[in-house]
Amino acid sequence: MVPAEAVRVRNLVASCGWREALEIPKALFGYVESVLDAAEPGVYLIDLLPPLTSSMHAFLAGIGAFTQSPVQESEIAQRRVRLLEYLDAFIDEARLHQRSVDFVHTMKAGQRKSF
């Protein structure tokens, strides 16, 4: 199941105009922060951060969030799709990572009971 925060970020990216796009960094990094855990670091999640942030920056620049002068609609659409692809990959990896963490915790709990 995908967390509500991930769905909210994805919907924001998928449908925002340049004014709403300014909310993406805060929403995205709020979600990222909620997923990353220092006690159970996810290497693949960390590996996805550079392309996720660079695609976010490219999208924001393209939609005109910084300068209010957007690029052509076709280019904005391509940048939006690229950002959504990286976001989807991150969301999927976060879900898989959480399942893995839950599995390890279950196994550890089972081992403690058997001793």
Largest sheet: none
SS content category: mainly alpha
- Estimate the mean pLDDT confidence: 91
How many extended strands?
0
What count of helical segments does DSSP give? Answer: 5
**Amount of beta strand:** under 5%
Instruction: Report the radius of gyration as a whole number of Å.
Output: 17 Å
Helix content: over 70%
Report how far apart the termini are. Answer: 33 Å
Q: Which sequence of SSEs, written as H and E, runs from N to C? A: HHHHH
Global morphology? elongated
- Low-confidence stretches are none
Question: Could you please describe the fold and organization of this structure?
Answer:
The chain has 115 residues and is mostly helical. It is built from five helices and no strands. Helix 1 (4-15) runs antiparallel to helix 3 (24-35) and helix 4 (43-63) runs antiparallel to helix 5 (73-114). The longest helix has 42 residues, at 73-114.
